[in-house]
TrEMBL record:
Transmembrane segments: none annotated. Its cofactor is FAD. GO terms for molecular function: (R)-2-hydroxyglutarate dehydrogenase activity; FAD binding. Residues 107-286 form the FAD-binding PCMH-type domain. It comes from the Eukaryota. Homodimer. This is D-2-hydroxyglutarate dehydrogenase, mitochondrial. Its EC number is 1.1.99.39. It is an enzyme of class 1 (oxidoreductase). GO terms for cellular component: mitochondrion; peroxisome. It catalyses: (R)-malate + A = oxaloacetate + AH2. It comes from Drosophila mojavensis.
Amino acid sequence: MRFPQGLMQMRRYATAVTLRQFGHTHTQTQTQAITHARRGTEATVVRTLASSASPLPELTQISDNVQRGNYAQLNDKDVAHFEQLLGKNHVLTEDLEGYNICFLKRIRGNSKLVLKPGNTQEVAAILRYCNERRLAVVPQGGNTGLVGGSVPICDEIVLSMQRLNKVLSVDEVTGIAIVEAGCILENFDQRARDVGLTVPLDLGAKASCHIGGNVSTNAGGVRVVRYGNLHGSVLGVEAVLANGQVLDLMSNFKKDNTGYHMKHLFIGSEGTLGVVTKLAMLCPHVSKAVNVAFIGLNSFDDVLKTFVSAKRNLGEILSSCELIDELALNTALQQFKFLNSPISGYPFYMLIETSGSNGDHDEEKINQFISQGMERGEILDGTVSGEPGKVQEIWKIREMVPLGLIEKSFCFKYDISLPLRDFYNIVDVMRERCGPLATVVCGYGHLGDSNLHLNVSCEQFNDEIYKRVEPFVYEYTSQLKGSISAEHGIGFLKKDYLHYSKNPVAIQWMRDMKKMFDPNGILNPYKMLN
Ligand code: FAD
Ligand code: MLT
Ligand code: ZN
Protein backbone atom coordinates (compact mmCIF):
# COMPACT_ATOMS: atom_id res chain seq x y z
CA MET A 1 0.00 0.00 0.00
CA ARG A 2 1.44 3.34 -0.94
CA PHE A 3 0.25 6.84 -0.43
CA PRO A 4 1.82 10.24 -0.14
CA GLN A 5 3.25 10.48 3.37
CA GLY A 6 1.55 12.93 5.64
CA LEU A 7 -1.23 13.61 3.23
CA MET A 8 -3.45 10.68 3.68
CA GLN A 9 -4.44 8.65 6.62
CA MET A 10 -3.76 5.09 5.54
CA ARG A 11 -6.23 2.59 6.88
CA ARG A 12 -5.55 -1.05 6.90
CA TYR A 13 -8.14 -3.59 5.97
CA ALA A 14 -9.07 -5.53 9.05
CA THR A 15 -10.57 -8.60 7.42
CA ALA A 16 -9.90 -10.53 4.33
CA VAL A 17 -12.78 -11.34 2.07
CA THR A 18 -13.17 -15.05 2.45
CA LEU A 19 -15.91 -15.81 -0.04
CA ARG A 20 -14.05 -16.23 -3.28
CA GLN A 21 -15.94 -14.90 -6.29
CA PHE A 22 -18.69 -13.76 -3.97
CA GLY A 23 -18.95 -10.47 -5.71
CA HIS A 24 -18.64 -11.92 -9.14
CA THR A 25 -21.83 -13.80 -9.18
CA HIS A 26 -25.18 -13.94 -7.45
CA THR A 27 -24.98 -13.33 -3.74
CA GLN A 28 -25.12 -16.44 -1.65
CA THR A 29 -28.75 -15.83 -0.84
CA GLN A 30 -29.55 -15.23 -4.45
CA THR A 31 -27.61 -18.21 -5.63
CA GLN A 32 -29.54 -20.33 -3.18
CA ALA A 33 -32.80 -18.82 -4.30
CA ILE A 34 -31.99 -19.45 -7.91
CA THR A 35 -30.75 -22.96 -7.25
CA HIS A 36 -33.87 -23.74 -5.31
CA ALA A 37 -35.99 -22.22 -7.98
CA ARG A 38 -34.27 -24.47 -10.50
CA ARG A 39 -35.37 -27.40 -8.45
CA GLY A 40 -38.86 -26.01 -8.57
CA THR A 41 -39.11 -25.70 -4.81
CA GLU A 42 -39.09 -21.98 -4.45
CA ALA A 43 -41.50 -20.41 -6.83
CA THR A 44 -42.38 -17.95 -4.09
CA VAL A 45 -39.05 -16.18 -4.52
CA VAL A 46 -40.56 -14.31 -7.41
CA ARG A 47 -41.51 -11.13 -5.68
CA THR A 48 -43.17 -9.27 -8.44
CA LEU A 49 -43.60 -9.29 -12.08
CA ALA A 50 -43.39 -6.08 -13.97
CA SER A 51 -44.99 -5.39 -17.25
CA SER A 52 -44.14 -1.84 -18.09
CA ALA A 53 -47.73 -1.27 -19.15
CA SER A 54 -49.23 -2.38 -15.89
CA PRO A 55 -47.38 -3.93 -12.99
CA LEU A 56 -48.72 -7.26 -11.93
CA PRO A 57 -49.30 -8.49 -8.44
CA GLU A 58 -46.91 -10.97 -6.89
CA LEU A 59 -46.57 -14.36 -8.45
CA THR A 60 -48.73 -13.65 -11.45
CA GLN A 61 -47.56 -15.28 -14.61
CA ILE A 62 -46.23 -12.77 -17.09
CA SER A 63 -48.19 -14.48 -19.82
CA ASP A 64 -51.38 -13.34 -18.11
CA ASN A 65 -50.59 -9.85 -19.25
CA VAL A 66 -48.84 -10.29 -22.58
CA GLN A 67 -50.60 -11.18 -25.76
CA ARG A 68 -49.00 -14.44 -26.88
CA GLY A 69 -47.73 -14.26 -30.46
CA ASN A 70 -49.15 -16.45 -33.15
CA TYR A 71 -46.71 -19.30 -32.55
CA ALA A 72 -47.28 -23.03 -32.66
CA GLN A 73 -47.86 -24.93 -29.41
CA LEU A 74 -45.12 -27.32 -28.40
CA ASN A 75 -46.20 -30.96 -28.60
CA ASP A 76 -44.80 -34.40 -27.74
CA LYS A 77 -43.62 -34.93 -31.29
CA ASP A 78 -41.46 -31.81 -31.03
CA VAL A 79 -39.92 -32.98 -27.79
CA ALA A 80 -39.23 -36.41 -29.30
CA HIS A 81 -37.61 -34.73 -32.28
CA PHE A 82 -35.28 -32.72 -30.05
CA GLU A 83 -34.46 -35.76 -27.93
CA GLN A 84 -33.38 -37.56 -31.03
CA LEU A 85 -31.32 -34.60 -32.18
CA LEU A 86 -29.55 -33.77 -28.92
CA GLY A 87 -29.92 -36.87 -26.77
CA LYS A 88 -32.39 -37.07 -23.88
CA ASN A 89 -29.93 -35.60 -21.37
CA HIS A 90 -29.85 -32.34 -23.19
CA VAL A 91 -33.60 -31.86 -23.45
CA LEU A 92 -35.15 -30.68 -20.19
CA THR A 93 -38.87 -30.70 -19.52
CA GLU A 94 -38.85 -30.57 -15.71
CA ASP A 95 -37.46 -28.29 -12.98
CA LEU A 96 -37.31 -25.32 -15.32
CA GLU A 97 -37.93 -22.49 -12.83
CA GLY A 98 -34.32 -21.28 -12.91
CA TYR A 99 -34.52 -20.86 -16.68
CA ASN A 100 -37.89 -19.14 -16.47
CA ILE A 101 -36.99 -16.52 -13.84
CA CYS A 102 -34.82 -13.50 -14.55
CA PHE A 103 -31.91 -12.49 -12.34
CA LEU A 104 -33.84 -9.66 -10.72
CA LYS A 105 -36.76 -12.00 -10.12
CA ARG A 106 -39.05 -9.59 -11.87
CA ILE A 107 -40.10 -11.78 -14.76
CA ARG A 108 -41.23 -15.34 -14.76
CA GLY A 109 -41.95 -17.05 -18.03
CA ASN A 110 -43.63 -20.34 -18.60
CA SER A 111 -41.34 -22.34 -20.85
CA LYS A 112 -41.92 -26.06 -20.90
CA LEU A 113 -38.71 -26.94 -22.71
CA VAL A 114 -35.02 -26.18 -22.35
CA LEU A 115 -32.65 -27.32 -25.10
CA LYS A 116 -28.90 -27.61 -24.62
CA PRO A 117 -27.13 -27.98 -27.95
CA GLY A 118 -23.46 -29.00 -27.91
CA ASN A 119 -22.27 -27.44 -31.16
CA THR A 120 -23.15 -25.01 -33.93
CA GLN A 121 -24.73 -27.67 -36.12
CA GLU A 122 -27.13 -28.60 -33.35
CA VAL A 123 -28.08 -24.95 -32.83
CA ALA A 124 -28.68 -24.72 -36.58
CA ALA A 125 -30.82 -27.86 -36.62
CA ILE A 126 -32.90 -26.61 -33.68
CA LEU A 127 -33.57 -23.23 -35.26
CA ARG A 128 -34.34 -24.71 -38.68
CA TYR A 129 -36.93 -26.95 -37.08
CA CYS A 130 -38.40 -24.19 -34.87
CA ASN A 131 -38.62 -21.85 -37.82
CA GLU A 132 -40.48 -24.41 -39.91
CA ARG A 133 -42.79 -25.24 -37.01
CA ARG A 134 -43.17 -21.58 -35.92
CA LEU A 135 -41.97 -22.32 -32.41
CA ALA A 136 -40.63 -19.31 -30.53
CA VAL A 137 -37.16 -19.47 -28.96
CA VAL A 138 -35.27 -17.44 -26.35
CA PRO A 139 -31.47 -17.74 -26.41
CA GLN A 140 -30.11 -17.89 -22.87
CA GLY A 141 -26.53 -17.45 -21.64
CA GLY A 142 -25.74 -17.09 -17.95
CA ASN A 143 -29.14 -15.46 -17.28
CA THR A 144 -27.51 -12.54 -15.49
CA GLY A 145 -29.09 -9.93 -17.75
CA LEU A 146 -30.88 -7.10 -15.94
CA VAL A 147 -33.60 -6.23 -18.45
CA GLY A 148 -35.47 -9.50 -18.73
CA GLY A 149 -34.05 -10.36 -22.16
CA SER A 150 -32.92 -13.89 -21.40
CA VAL A 151 -36.09 -15.44 -20.04
CA PRO A 152 -39.23 -16.52 -21.83
CA ILE A 153 -42.16 -14.16 -21.55
CA CYS A 154 -44.77 -16.75 -22.54
CA ASP A 155 -43.85 -20.31 -23.40
CA GLU A 156 -40.82 -19.82 -25.68
CA ILE A 157 -38.34 -22.69 -25.85
CA VAL A 158 -35.18 -21.82 -23.91
CA LEU A 159 -32.05 -22.37 -26.00
CA SER A 160 -29.38 -22.65 -23.34
CA MET A 161 -25.83 -22.11 -24.53
CA GLN A 162 -24.25 -23.75 -21.48
CA ARG A 163 -22.67 -26.64 -23.38
CA LEU A 164 -20.92 -24.55 -26.01
CA ASN A 165 -18.33 -23.62 -23.45
CA LYS A 166 -14.91 -24.27 -24.95
CA VAL A 167 -12.05 -21.88 -25.45
CA LEU A 168 -10.90 -23.14 -28.83
CA SER A 169 -7.60 -21.29 -29.07
CA VAL A 170 -5.63 -18.45 -27.58
CA ASP A 171 -2.77 -17.13 -29.68
CA GLU A 172 -0.24 -15.32 -27.54
CA VAL A 173 1.47 -13.82 -30.57
CA THR A 174 -1.57 -12.20 -32.17
CA GLY A 175 -3.59 -11.88 -28.95
CA ILE A 176 -6.58 -13.43 -30.69
CA ALA A 177 -8.73 -15.96 -28.85
CA ILE A 178 -11.45 -18.07 -30.42
CA VAL A 179 -14.15 -19.07 -27.98
CA GLU A 180 -17.54 -20.69 -28.00
CA ALA A 181 -20.43 -18.47 -26.96
CA GLY A 182 -21.39 -20.40 -23.81
CA CYS A 183 -18.00 -20.04 -22.16
CA ILE A 184 -18.24 -18.29 -18.79
CA LEU A 185 -16.40 -14.98 -18.92
CA GLU A 186 -14.20 -15.76 -15.93
CA ASN A 187 -13.15 -19.13 -17.38
CA PHE A 188 -12.34 -17.47 -20.68
CA ASP A 189 -10.25 -14.85 -18.89
CA GLN A 190 -8.41 -17.54 -16.95
CA ARG A 191 -7.47 -19.32 -20.17
CA ALA A 192 -6.24 -16.05 -21.65
CA ARG A 193 -4.23 -15.35 -18.49
CA ASP A 194 -2.52 -18.72 -18.81
CA VAL A 195 -0.61 -17.21 -21.73
CA GLY A 196 -0.27 -13.70 -20.32
CA LEU A 197 -3.35 -12.21 -21.98
CA THR A 198 -6.64 -11.02 -20.57
CA VAL A 199 -10.18 -10.61 -21.88
CA PRO A 200 -10.74 -6.87 -22.33
CA LEU A 201 -14.09 -7.07 -20.53
CA ASP A 202 -14.68 -7.31 -16.81
CA LEU A 203 -17.96 -7.10 -14.92
CA GLY A 204 -19.44 -8.13 -11.62
CA ALA A 205 -21.31 -11.09 -13.10
CA LYS A 206 -18.20 -12.65 -14.62
CA ALA A 207 -18.44 -15.93 -12.76
CA SER A 208 -21.87 -16.59 -14.29
CA CYS A 209 -22.29 -14.65 -17.52
CA HIS A 210 -21.30 -16.13 -20.87
CA ILE A 211 -19.08 -14.43 -23.39
CA GLY A 212 -21.87 -14.96 -25.97
CA GLY A 213 -24.30 -13.20 -23.61
CA ASN A 214 -21.78 -10.39 -23.20
CA VAL A 215 -21.47 -9.98 -26.95
CA SER A 216 -25.22 -10.19 -27.45
CA THR A 217 -25.78 -7.41 -24.92
CA ASN A 218 -22.62 -5.49 -25.88
CA ALA A 219 -21.82 -5.58 -22.18
CA GLY A 220 -19.77 -2.69 -20.86
CA GLY A 221 -18.31 -3.22 -17.42
CA VAL A 222 -15.39 -1.62 -15.67
CA ARG A 223 -12.71 -1.55 -18.37
CA VAL A 224 -14.42 0.31 -21.19
CA VAL A 225 -12.50 3.43 -20.30
CA ARG A 226 -9.32 1.53 -21.23
CA TYR A 227 -10.24 -1.01 -23.92
CA GLY A 228 -13.39 0.45 -25.45
CA ASN A 229 -16.52 -1.63 -25.95
CA LEU A 230 -16.96 -4.98 -27.63
CA HIS A 231 -17.53 -3.49 -31.06
CA GLY A 232 -13.79 -2.88 -31.09
CA SER A 233 -12.54 -6.03 -29.37
CA VAL A 234 -14.69 -8.63 -31.11
CA LEU A 235 -12.99 -9.34 -34.42
CA GLY A 236 -15.52 -11.81 -35.71
CA VAL A 237 -18.58 -13.84 -34.84
CA GLU A 238 -20.31 -16.97 -36.00
CA ALA A 239 -24.08 -16.74 -35.69
CA VAL A 240 -26.94 -19.04 -36.53
CA LEU A 241 -29.88 -17.28 -38.13
CA ALA A 242 -33.52 -17.97 -37.44
CA ASN A 243 -33.79 -20.24 -40.50
CA GLY A 244 -30.85 -22.35 -39.37
CA GLN A 245 -28.31 -20.83 -41.74
CA VAL A 246 -24.84 -20.51 -40.23
CA LEU A 247 -23.40 -17.07 -40.87
CA ASP A 248 -19.63 -17.25 -40.61
CA LEU A 249 -18.27 -13.77 -39.91
CA MET A 250 -15.16 -14.95 -38.11
CA SER A 251 -12.00 -12.95 -38.71
CA ASN A 252 -8.49 -12.96 -37.40
CA PHE A 253 -7.74 -9.39 -38.26
CA LYS A 254 -8.45 -5.97 -36.88
CA LYS A 255 -8.57 -4.62 -40.37
CA ASP A 256 -11.05 -5.96 -42.87
CA ASN A 257 -12.97 -3.53 -45.06
CA THR A 258 -14.62 -5.96 -47.38
CA GLY A 259 -18.09 -4.52 -47.44
CA TYR A 260 -20.64 -4.23 -44.66
CA HIS A 261 -19.37 -4.98 -41.15
CA MET A 262 -22.12 -7.44 -40.40
CA LYS A 263 -20.61 -8.76 -37.18
CA HIS A 264 -21.72 -5.54 -35.49
CA LEU A 265 -25.34 -6.51 -35.97
CA PHE A 266 -24.89 -9.36 -33.53
CA ILE A 267 -23.08 -7.25 -30.94
CA GLY A 268 -25.86 -5.87 -28.79
CA SER A 269 -28.84 -7.29 -30.67
CA GLU A 270 -29.84 -9.33 -27.61
CA GLY A 271 -30.62 -12.56 -29.41
CA THR A 272 -33.19 -11.00 -31.71
CA LEU A 273 -31.29 -11.42 -35.00
CA GLY A 274 -29.40 -14.66 -34.51
CA VAL A 275 -27.74 -16.93 -31.99
CA VAL A 276 -24.04 -16.25 -31.51
CA THR A 277 -22.19 -19.55 -31.36
CA LYS A 278 -18.53 -18.56 -31.62
CA LEU A 279 -16.42 -15.42 -31.67
CA ALA A 280 -12.91 -14.10 -32.08
CA MET A 281 -11.71 -11.69 -29.40
CA LEU A 282 -8.67 -9.48 -29.41
CA CYS A 283 -7.11 -9.87 -25.97
CA PRO A 284 -4.58 -7.38 -24.58
CA HIS A 285 -1.61 -8.41 -22.47
CA VAL A 286 -2.10 -8.65 -18.73
CA SER A 287 -0.69 -5.52 -17.14
CA LYS A 288 2.38 -6.09 -15.01
CA ALA A 289 1.40 -3.43 -12.50
CA VAL A 290 -2.11 -2.70 -11.26
CA ASN A 291 -2.85 -0.03 -8.65
CA VAL A 292 -6.20 0.86 -7.24
CA ALA A 293 -7.15 4.00 -5.34
CA PHE A 294 -10.36 4.25 -3.33
CA ILE A 295 -10.98 7.85 -2.43
CA GLY A 296 -13.59 9.95 -0.63
CA LEU A 297 -14.87 13.26 -1.95
CA ASN A 298 -17.22 15.92 -0.76
CA SER A 299 -19.15 16.95 -3.85
CA PHE A 300 -19.91 15.84 -7.35
CA ASP A 301 -18.04 18.87 -8.56
CA ASP A 302 -14.92 17.46 -6.91
CA VAL A 303 -15.64 14.12 -8.53
CA LEU A 304 -15.62 15.75 -11.96
CA LYS A 305 -12.42 17.63 -11.23
CA THR A 306 -10.79 14.42 -10.06
CA PHE A 307 -11.91 12.61 -13.19
CA VAL A 308 -10.40 15.31 -15.40
CA SER A 309 -7.22 15.16 -13.35
CA ALA A 310 -7.13 11.35 -13.67
CA LYS A 311 -7.38 11.60 -17.44
CA ARG A 312 -4.77 14.31 -17.59
CA ASN A 313 -2.29 12.81 -15.15
CA LEU A 314 -2.82 9.07 -15.45
CA GLY A 315 -3.68 9.11 -19.14
CA GLU A 316 -2.30 5.99 -20.75
CA ILE A 317 -2.39 3.87 -17.57
CA LEU A 318 -5.94 4.71 -16.46
CA SER A 319 -7.94 1.48 -16.64
CA SER A 320 -11.07 2.20 -14.56
CA CYS A 321 -12.89 5.17 -13.18
CA GLU A 322 -15.92 4.24 -11.10
CA LEU A 323 -18.21 6.29 -8.90
CA ILE A 324 -20.16 5.13 -5.84
CA ASP A 325 -22.32 7.45 -3.80
CA GLU A 326 -22.64 7.22 -0.04
CA LEU A 327 -26.01 5.47 0.05
CA ALA A 328 -24.95 2.87 -2.49
CA LEU A 329 -21.81 2.10 -0.51
CA ASN A 330 -23.57 2.04 2.85
CA THR A 331 -26.26 -0.31 1.57
CA ALA A 332 -23.63 -2.78 0.41
CA LEU A 333 -21.72 -2.48 3.68
CA GLN A 334 -24.90 -3.08 5.67
CA GLN A 335 -25.87 -6.14 3.67
CA PHE A 336 -22.46 -7.77 3.43
CA LYS A 337 -20.61 -7.61 6.70
CA PHE A 338 -17.49 -9.17 5.22
CA LEU A 339 -16.91 -6.00 3.19
CA ASN A 340 -14.60 -3.57 4.85
CA SER A 341 -14.42 -0.11 3.42
CA PRO A 342 -11.13 1.66 4.07
CA ILE A 343 -12.89 5.00 4.44
CA SER A 344 -16.35 6.17 5.39
CA GLY A 345 -18.47 9.25 5.86
CA TYR A 346 -18.06 10.89 2.45
CA PRO A 347 -20.88 11.74 0.05
CA PHE A 348 -18.94 10.29 -2.91
CA TYR A 349 -16.33 7.63 -3.50
CA MET A 350 -14.26 6.95 -6.56
CA LEU A 351 -12.42 3.80 -7.49
CA ILE A 352 -9.59 4.62 -9.83
CA GLU A 353 -7.45 1.88 -11.29
CA THR A 354 -4.23 2.11 -13.24
CA SER A 355 -2.69 -0.71 -15.24
CA GLY A 356 0.71 -0.43 -16.80
CA SER A 357 3.98 -2.16 -17.44
CA ASN A 358 6.23 -0.38 -14.97
CA GLY A 359 5.26 -0.63 -11.30
CA ASP A 360 7.51 2.15 -10.01
CA HIS A 361 6.45 4.54 -12.70
CA ASP A 362 2.75 3.81 -12.17
CA GLU A 363 2.97 4.11 -8.39
CA GLU A 364 4.70 7.40 -8.69
CA LYS A 365 2.05 8.65 -11.04
CA ILE A 366 -0.94 7.57 -8.98
CA ASN A 367 0.60 8.88 -5.76
CA GLN A 368 1.26 12.20 -7.37
CA PHE A 369 -2.25 12.32 -8.75
CA ILE A 370 -3.65 11.71 -5.27
CA SER A 371 -1.42 14.14 -3.46
CA GLN A 372 -2.20 16.88 -5.94
CA GLY A 373 -5.91 16.17 -5.58
CA MET A 374 -5.56 16.35 -1.82
CA GLU A 375 -3.61 19.58 -1.97
CA ARG A 376 -6.40 21.12 -4.01
CA GLY A 377 -8.91 19.85 -1.45
CA GLU A 378 -10.74 17.70 -3.99
CA ILE A 379 -9.71 14.32 -2.59
CA LEU A 380 -10.32 14.14 1.15
CA ASP A 381 -9.14 10.70 2.14
CA GLY A 382 -8.52 7.29 0.70
CA THR A 383 -6.31 4.33 0.19
CA VAL A 384 -4.16 3.15 -2.65
CA SER A 385 -2.76 -0.30 -3.18
CA GLY A 386 -0.87 -2.31 -5.72
CA GLU A 387 -0.97 -5.52 -3.76
CA PRO A 388 -3.17 -8.05 -5.62
CA GLY A 389 -5.11 -9.16 -2.51
CA LYS A 390 -5.93 -5.60 -1.54
CA VAL A 391 -6.74 -4.63 -5.10
CA GLN A 392 -9.28 -7.44 -5.15
CA GLU A 393 -10.75 -6.39 -1.82
CA ILE A 394 -11.33 -2.88 -3.05
CA TRP A 395 -12.92 -4.17 -6.25
CA LYS A 396 -15.13 -6.43 -4.15
CA ILE A 397 -16.71 -3.36 -2.57
CA ARG A 398 -17.67 -2.00 -5.99
CA GLU A 399 -18.88 -5.37 -7.25
CA MET A 400 -21.16 -5.91 -4.26
CA VAL A 401 -22.95 -2.58 -4.66
CA PRO A 402 -25.62 -3.81 -7.12
CA LEU A 403 -26.18 -6.95 -5.10
CA GLY A 404 -26.59 -5.00 -1.85
CA LEU A 405 -29.52 -3.17 -3.37
CA ILE A 406 -31.43 -6.28 -4.35
CA GLU A 407 -30.46 -8.49 -1.44
CA LYS A 408 -33.52 -7.71 0.64
CA SER A 409 -35.39 -5.16 -1.40
CA PHE A 410 -37.13 -4.63 -4.66
CA CYS A 411 -35.07 -2.36 -6.88
CA PHE A 412 -35.98 -0.27 -9.91
CA LYS A 413 -32.74 -0.18 -11.90
CA TYR A 414 -31.78 2.37 -14.52
CA ASP A 415 -28.67 2.25 -16.64
CA ILE A 416 -28.32 5.54 -18.43
CA SER A 417 -25.76 7.57 -20.35
CA LEU A 418 -25.82 11.21 -19.38
CA PRO A 419 -23.61 14.19 -20.14
CA LEU A 420 -21.01 14.34 -17.36
CA ARG A 421 -21.97 17.79 -16.16
CA ASP A 422 -25.53 16.58 -15.53
CA PHE A 423 -24.48 13.11 -14.47
CA TYR A 424 -25.58 13.06 -10.85
CA ASN A 425 -28.46 15.57 -10.75
CA ILE A 426 -31.01 12.90 -11.57
CA VAL A 427 -30.23 11.09 -8.32
CA ASP A 428 -31.18 14.17 -6.28
CA VAL A 429 -34.22 14.79 -8.46
CA MET A 430 -35.36 11.22 -7.99
CA ARG A 431 -34.85 11.37 -4.21
CA GLU A 432 -37.12 14.35 -4.16
CA ARG A 433 -39.73 12.66 -6.34
CA CYS A 434 -39.81 9.44 -4.35
CA GLY A 435 -39.54 10.89 -0.86
CA PRO A 436 -40.05 8.37 1.94
CA LEU A 437 -41.71 5.89 -0.41
CA ALA A 438 -38.25 4.67 -1.41
CA THR A 439 -35.85 3.16 1.08
CA VAL A 440 -32.77 3.98 -1.00
CA VAL A 441 -32.27 6.21 -4.04
CA CYS A 442 -28.65 6.05 -5.08
CA GLY A 443 -26.23 6.32 -7.96
CA TYR A 444 -23.05 4.55 -8.92
CA GLY A 445 -21.48 3.44 -12.14
CA HIS A 446 -18.94 3.90 -14.81
CA LEU A 447 -18.18 7.59 -14.52
CA GLY A 448 -15.35 7.23 -17.02
CA ASP A 449 -17.91 6.25 -19.68
CA SER A 450 -20.65 8.72 -18.61
CA ASN A 451 -22.73 5.74 -17.54
CA LEU A 452 -24.84 6.15 -14.39
CA HIS A 453 -26.61 3.32 -12.60
CA LEU A 454 -29.54 4.99 -10.91
CA ASN A 455 -31.27 2.69 -8.45
CA VAL A 456 -34.47 3.17 -6.51
CA SER A 457 -35.21 0.52 -3.97
CA CYS A 458 -38.17 -0.15 -1.77
CA GLU A 459 -39.33 -3.02 0.38
CA GLN A 460 -41.41 -4.53 -2.36
CA PHE A 461 -42.76 -3.58 -5.74
CA ASN A 462 -44.71 -0.41 -5.25
CA ASP A 463 -47.01 1.00 -7.86
CA GLU A 464 -46.81 4.50 -6.46
CA ILE A 465 -43.01 4.69 -6.78
CA TYR A 466 -43.16 3.00 -10.13
CA LYS A 467 -45.36 5.81 -11.43
CA ARG A 468 -43.06 8.40 -9.97
CA VAL A 469 -39.93 7.03 -11.63
CA GLU A 470 -41.23 5.82 -14.99
CA PRO A 471 -41.44 7.21 -17.58
CA PHE A 472 -39.97 10.29 -15.88
CA VAL A 473 -36.44 8.90 -15.83
CA TYR A 474 -36.58 8.17 -19.56
CA GLU A 475 -38.03 11.59 -20.41
CA TYR A 476 -35.34 13.24 -18.33
CA THR A 477 -32.59 11.24 -20.03
CA SER A 478 -34.01 11.90 -23.45
CA GLN A 479 -34.16 15.64 -22.83
CA LEU A 480 -30.44 15.58 -22.11
CA LYS A 481 -29.90 13.51 -25.26
CA GLY A 482 -28.65 10.63 -23.15
CA SER A 483 -29.24 6.93 -23.68
CA ILE A 484 -31.92 5.02 -21.78
CA SER A 485 -29.67 1.98 -21.88
CA ALA A 486 -25.96 2.55 -21.64
CA GLU A 487 -25.01 -1.11 -21.28
CA HIS A 488 -27.72 -3.51 -20.08
CA GLY A 489 -29.82 -3.40 -23.23
CA ILE A 490 -33.54 -3.05 -23.85
CA GLY A 491 -34.76 -6.61 -23.34
CA PHE A 492 -38.33 -6.85 -22.10
CA LEU A 493 -38.32 -4.25 -19.34
CA LYS A 494 -37.40 -1.27 -21.50
CA LYS A 495 -38.99 -2.07 -24.82
CA ASP A 496 -41.80 0.45 -24.35
CA TYR A 497 -39.22 3.19 -23.91
CA LEU A 498 -36.95 2.62 -26.90
CA HIS A 499 -38.38 5.71 -28.61
CA TYR A 500 -36.82 7.91 -25.95
CA SER A 501 -33.41 7.09 -27.40
CA LYS A 502 -34.13 6.14 -31.02
CA ASN A 503 -36.06 8.20 -33.53
CA PRO A 504 -38.99 6.72 -35.50
CA VAL A 505 -36.97 6.30 -38.70
CA ALA A 506 -34.25 4.38 -36.84
CA ILE A 507 -36.84 2.20 -35.12
CA GLN A 508 -38.50 1.43 -38.44
CA TRP A 509 -35.13 0.35 -39.87
CA MET A 510 -34.62 -1.86 -36.84
CA ARG A 511 -38.02 -3.46 -37.47
CA ASP A 512 -37.21 -3.97 -41.14
CA MET A 513 -33.90 -5.59 -40.26
CA LYS A 514 -35.59 -7.87 -37.76
CA LYS A 515 -38.09 -8.89 -40.42
CA MET A 516 -35.31 -9.67 -42.87
CA PHE A 517 -33.28 -11.77 -40.43
CA ASP A 518 -36.22 -13.45 -38.76
CA PRO A 519 -39.36 -13.23 -40.95
CA ASN A 520 -41.39 -15.48 -38.66
CA GLY A 521 -40.32 -13.61 -35.53
CA ILE A 522 -39.29 -16.78 -33.69
CA LEU A 523 -36.14 -15.33 -32.11
CA ASN A 524 -36.59 -13.73 -28.71
CA PRO A 525 -40.09 -12.35 -29.26
CA TYR A 526 -41.57 -9.66 -26.96
CA LYS A 527 -38.09 -8.15 -26.55
CA MET A 528 -36.48 -4.90 -27.72
CA LEU A 529 -39.06 -3.96 -30.33
CA ASN A 530 -42.75 -3.81 -29.51
P1 FAD B 1 -28.16 -13.60 -20.54
O1 FAD B 1 -28.62 -12.81 -19.38
O2 FAD B 1 -28.41 -15.04 -20.52
O3 FAD B 1 -28.78 -12.98 -21.88
C1 FAD B 1 -28.75 -11.60 -22.14
C2 FAD B 1 -29.35 -11.35 -23.54
O4 FAD B 1 -28.49 -11.91 -24.54
C3 FAD B 1 -30.70 -11.99 -23.77
O5 FAD B 1 -31.43 -11.18 -24.63
C4 FAD B 1 -30.37 -13.31 -24.45
O6 FAD B 1 -31.42 -13.76 -25.26
C5 FAD B 1 -29.16 -12.93 -25.26
N1 FAD B 1 -28.18 -14.01 -25.46
C6 FAD B 1 -27.46 -14.67 -24.52
N2 FAD B 1 -26.59 -15.51 -25.11
C7 FAD B 1 -26.78 -15.38 -26.44
C8 FAD B 1 -26.18 -15.98 -27.58
N3 FAD B 1 -25.19 -16.86 -27.49
N4 FAD B 1 -26.61 -15.60 -28.80
C9 FAD B 1 -27.60 -14.68 -28.93
N5 FAD B 1 -28.19 -14.10 -27.89
C10 FAD B 1 -27.78 -14.44 -26.66
N6 FAD B 1 -23.74 -5.61 -17.65
C11 FAD B 1 -22.90 -4.69 -18.16
O7 FAD B 1 -23.00 -4.34 -19.33
N7 FAD B 1 -21.93 -4.12 -17.37
C12 FAD B 1 -21.77 -4.46 -16.07
O8 FAD B 1 -20.90 -3.93 -15.40
C13 FAD B 1 -22.64 -5.44 -15.53
N8 FAD B 1 -22.49 -5.85 -14.25
C14 FAD B 1 -23.36 -6.75 -13.74
C15 FAD B 1 -23.21 -7.14 -12.41
C16 FAD B 1 -24.09 -8.05 -11.86
C17 FAD B 1 -23.91 -8.47 -10.43
C18 FAD B 1 -25.13 -8.60 -12.66
C19 FAD B 1 -26.08 -9.61 -12.09
C20 FAD B 1 -25.26 -8.24 -13.97
C21 FAD B 1 -24.39 -7.30 -14.53
N9 FAD B 1 -24.51 -6.91 -15.86
C22 FAD B 1 -23.65 -5.99 -16.37
C23 FAD B 1 -25.59 -7.44 -16.71
C24 FAD B 1 -25.24 -8.81 -17.37
O9 FAD B 1 -24.32 -9.51 -16.63
C25 FAD B 1 -24.73 -8.61 -18.77
O10 FAD B 1 -25.75 -8.10 -19.56
C26 FAD B 1 -24.20 -9.89 -19.43
O11 FAD B 1 -23.57 -9.54 -20.64
C27 FAD B 1 -25.26 -10.93 -19.70
O12 FAD B 1 -24.63 -12.15 -20.05
P2 FAD B 1 -25.39 -13.54 -19.87
O13 FAD B 1 -24.56 -14.62 -20.42
O14 FAD B 1 -25.83 -13.71 -18.47
O15 FAD B 1 -26.63 -13.31 -20.82
C1 MLT C 1 -22.68 -2.57 -12.51
O1 MLT C 1 -22.00 -1.74 -13.09
O2 MLT C 1 -22.51 -2.86 -11.32
C2 MLT C 1 -23.71 -3.30 -13.29
O3 MLT C 1 -23.95 -2.77 -14.52
C3 MLT C 1 -24.90 -3.78 -12.54
C4 MLT C 1 -25.83 -2.72 -12.08
O4 MLT C 1 -26.07 -1.76 -12.77
O5 MLT C 1 -26.39 -2.81 -11.00
ZN1 ZN D 1 -22.51 -1.31 -15.07
